[in-house]
Specification:
Two copies of one chain form a homodimer.
Chain A lengths: L1 H4 L2 H6 L3 H28 L4 H6 L3 H9 L7 E2 L2 H12 L7 H23 L11 H24 L8 H11 L5 H19 L1 H7 L4 H25 L27 H32 L6 H17 L6 E2 L1 H9 L6 H21 L4 H13 L5 H9 L1 H17 L1 H21 L2 E7 L6 E3 L11 E7 L4 H16 L6 E5 L8 H16 L3 E5 L3 H7 L3 H4 L5 E2 L2 H9 L2 H4 L4
Parallel strand pairs in A: 5-6, 6-7, 7-8
Antiparallel strand pairs in A: 1-2, 3-4, 3-5
Keywords (chains A, B): Membrane, Transmembrane, Transmembrane helix
Protein name (chains A, B): Sulfate permease
Subcellular location (chains A, B): Membrane
């Protein structure tokens, strides 16, 4: 029982020297990768860079205690940082103490919601964020994030959390480009791109061992930061108008909870919920993908608790909302992380870096962080999803398109709600107009299929209809019309067999419609039979007026129904 | 084509003397019934009583031109009157000119919406208002309406459109009861009850002919109104503090459209939409019930246009939102109305009554109208629905209970939205956790059923799973878990057959899950087969990576799949 909620009690007991070694190496590599990302994502969230480091300490320890994935690396991620900026930006101005407090409150709220969802086993809520919607959302967010960093790279302002505002802001400030900033931005961008795309081949050619080359590539962004900091000091870039990070509090964060007002909670509740669900879905997909490769199981509800604890820890430790990141988790996995302890070691690494680094951060050009962000998020953008969705189904395409358009034009929260809303509406609309088929017997079998698709045998006077949908309020009237029209246009029909193999539920509205159909058919002198009614549906129908007054019978299979009807004396003299 | 939008061109051509006679008699009886109801419902809507008469003239003529039901009688109804009061009451104080204008705008908006829904064939939207929700809504509305009239019967104020406000208001004013009002109210209530329950038997006993007795009973409320008007004059009840209707404009309404502001449209748009849908659902169910008795067809989208035209006419003619009423339509039907012309004749009757009646209305005690309302709405209250829903399914019960509680406590609009929301959420929740069954062969047939419910034959090493739900985003992950767990707990399984007879659609999220299942089973050395995939589903799967790399085969029927697998050489030496 205790092990369910504290997985550390389980793997901790089996922890050995080998796992320790693997975890330590993985932690080292992830630490190197996390430092520039943490600084950059905090900037993206509109927060001082050190907050990114703070958000990469306590949350990792919390996840190590509660998490079920051996490879997941939590911390600040791009999409959640953007969502934080959008949510908090409505309450306070960037750079104020209120802004930082609101970000902390957002983390606490999101942590509380995730933990509650986990305790009450409400993980299924996340299922309503479909693959196409989350994929479209991430693409659109990546695009917004990349656009927002154009400002940082050019040394101009770029305000807004949706494309129209951002583009307007950038265009109207184009006259104020700082050439030194542009130079640092271009240099950083170029170096980072080269590191990502080419450094490994280059090291290979120089005969550097694969393992070392890998670590050098991961550490590349740290070198870029060190280089631009040096350039900043040597050329006094701050004096030439290049935006620098500036003085930051030194040392580790003080554990504290800011004053929380009810107004603030009300304003941040919906964003916190959306951030929680988006963060959870992103995190759980990474965790499950990696777990499948090692035949491990991820417990979704416990993951909710773990992410909740991580966010509560982020709030207490002066950070902002965190979740499991894709890139860093893959790196953690590749580097051989054996248990969640790797995350705890990473936390220690980041804490050390925070102590060492904060005194020097003042001279870091912000353009370098912007370049780091752009390189990181461009991998998120995948417009191919639109094409794939279009090819597969218009319904999925509608959901992706609504999400992308909504997010780009109206912002992250509206975008995701629009996507979820569209996918639910499309689903409801489709199930409100179900597919139905007249069926006949596939020759030589006891199997019944659509007369339009298969060469099948039918019996004159017997109309077999298979309705391909559960019967519920949204399609109950449709069913009434369907059967009425079919029977009215076939005057020779004496028996209708409703083949229920695809009817998974019948709600009360549909029961009333079935009752109406029974009465209507009765008035027309046509009998109504059912076949292949599933157990759970039959359990409900038993005892209802509909079943008790059914003019026909309920048959186990469609074949038995047809055999019985063909054998009836009245049908013997008819041509078969 | 023209006949589709103007059904009058169809039945008008065949109109003859006999239909004219029937329609005229029906119109006479409905007119007698409509007069007191129109006055009373206008009062319930917070409007002067003559507005109820106005709303019973032009709308009936509009319906006669556009409607497809020969029996439907449109006009003011109780539930829509309550909803009008709730919507308009937020914008203006009762009794002001703004209040009356807002009611007219509400009718115009609702008329426009209904007509557009009809033209764009959006009638299916109404399907989302399920039977249990509409039934719970009407019950709760009836209760609120009856409670609101206690004030009128006691001569005290009763403010509010939901139960808590109403009860508080009544209790705090109990000290101001006017005994004369109470006497008139009690007399009216008693007489109306007696007329409804006993007058017919009484007339029977005195040997009055059935037809005449029926008309006398219908005319009963008019006599009560005449009686209390007489009492009002004789005893000078106005001078004794009894609330009277007071002076009303004489003659027919002037056709006009009030000044409409954008603010007003914005404030009334949602209420107008809800009123439109509730009104349409109430109206169409009455129309269809009556049409079925005569083997007539109702065209739902044309009914939307007809109701839209009626409401536009109500707005232009100084009325307020109208719809097809249950009681009066039944009376119209019973009285033999043969065509929609009966409605037009009723309109002429009401217009005549308006001219004759308005001069005398001033002395009518409002308590009489309150009594009329109470008697009319008590038939709407049906708490039995709660019990029936509970017995049938918890899901339906949740929807009814949410509707009733929401309507009583929070008002009509919140109540109905809560009901619709609950029924959709419950439907989504259920389909997110689908029923699934391991199936085996029913001996002596080619039919496969749940191993837990039927004595069936299975083949060792082959796991046949039937999933009873379309696969879509909300249950995609659930399916992954289900199959993974089933296979992981049965190490001897070599083949999984997914029986798709109940899978009516596969969306992109589910396709990705199927793909994940394929890969997972592949890693475990287990083949995945499909059987009984429906045409529309197969159309989508063709060409996808999932189908192209499927390790097993797609079989037409479950039986063919099992025959093929049993015949495989590797299985020949196993015990069958």
């Amino acid at each position: 029982m205790l092990k369910t909620y504290f997985p550390i009690l389980d793997w901790g007991r089996r922890y050995d020297r080998q796992a320790f070694g693997s975890d330590l190496i993985a932690a080292l590599i992830v630490t190197i990768m996390l430092i520039p990302q943490s600084l950059a994502y905090a900037l993206l969230a509109g927060l001082p860079p050190e907050v990114g480091l703070y958000a990469s300490i306590l949350p990792l320890i919390a996840y190590a205690i509660f998490g079920t994935s051996s490879a997941l690396a939590v911390g600040p991620v791009a999409v959640v940082s953007l969502m934080t900026a959008a949510a908090v930006g409505r309450l306070a101005a960037e750079g104020t103490a209120d802004y930082a407090s609101a970000a902390i409150v957002l983390a606490l709220l999101s942590g509380g919601m995730l933990a509650l969802m986990g305790l009450f086993r409400l993980g299924f809520i996340a299922n309503f964020l479909s693959h196409p919607v989350i994929s479209g959302f991430i693409t659109a967010s990546g695009l917004i994030i990349a656009t927002s960093q154009i400002g940082g790279l050019l040394g101009i302002k770029a305000d807004g959390h949706a494309l129209p505002d951002l583009v307007t802001s950038i265009l109207s400030n184009l006259g104020h480009i700082n050439l030194y900033t542009l130079a640092i931005g271009a240099l950083s961008l170029g170096l980072l791109l080269w590191i990502r795309l080419d450094l490994k081949n280059w090291l290979d050619r120089f005969g550097v061992a694969k393992g070392v080359a890998k670590i050098v590539v991961r550490a590349g962004p740290v070198f870029v930061i060190a280089l631009t900091m040096t350039l900043s000091v040597v050329f006094d870039l701050g004096g030439k108008g290049v935006a620098l990070v500036g003085d930051v509090p030194q040392g580790l964060p003080i554990l504290a909870i800011p004053g929380i007002s009810l107004d603030m909670i009300e304003a941040l509740a919906l964003p916190a919920l959306i951030i929680s669900i988006v963060g959870f879905v992103e995190s759980i997909s990474v965790a499950q993908t990696l777990a499948a490769k090692r035949r491990e199981r991820i417990e979704p509800n416990q993951e909710l608790i773990a992410l909740g604890a991580s966010n509560l820890a982020a709030g207490i430790g002066g950070g902002y909302p965190v979740t499991g990141g894709f890139a860093r988790s893959v790196v953690n996995f590749d580097a051989g992380a054996a248990t969640p302890a790797a995350g705890a070691f990473t936390a220690i690494g980041i804490a050390g870096a925070t102590l060492l680094l904060t005194p020097f951060l003042a001279v870091l050009p912000k353009a370098t962080l912007s370049a780091t962000i752009v390189i990181a998020v461009l991998t998120l953008v995948d417009f191919g999803m639109l094409k794939r969705a279009w090819a597969y189904s218009r319904a999925d395409f509608a959901a992706v398109a609504a999400t992308i358009a909504g997010t780009l034009l109206l912002g992250v929260e509206v975008g995701i709600l629009l996507g979820v809303g569209t996918s639910i509406l499309v689903f409801l609309y489709r199930s409100s107009k179900p597919h139905a088929a007249i069926v006949g017997k596939v020759p030589g079998t006891e199997h019944y299929r659509n007369v339009k698709r298969h060469a099948v045998e039918t019996v004159p006077g017997v109309l077999s209809i298979r309705v391909d949908e559960s019967l519920y309020f949204a399609n109950a009237r449709y069913l009434e019309d369907l059967i009425y029209n079919q029977v009215a246009s076939n005057p020779e029909v004496t028996d209708v067999v409703l083949m229920c193999s695809a009817i998974n539920a019948v709600d009360m509205s549909a029961l009333e419609s079935l009752e109406a159909i029974r009465v209507q058919l009765g008035d027309m002198g046509v009998r109504l039979h059912l076949s292949e009614v599933k157990g759970p549906v039959m359990d409900r129908l038993v005892g209802t007026e509909f079943l008790e007054h059914l003019s026909g019978r309920v048959y186990l299979s469609q074949h038995q129904a047809m055999q019985a009807l063909v054998a009836e004396p009245s049908r013997q003299h008819e041509p078969a």
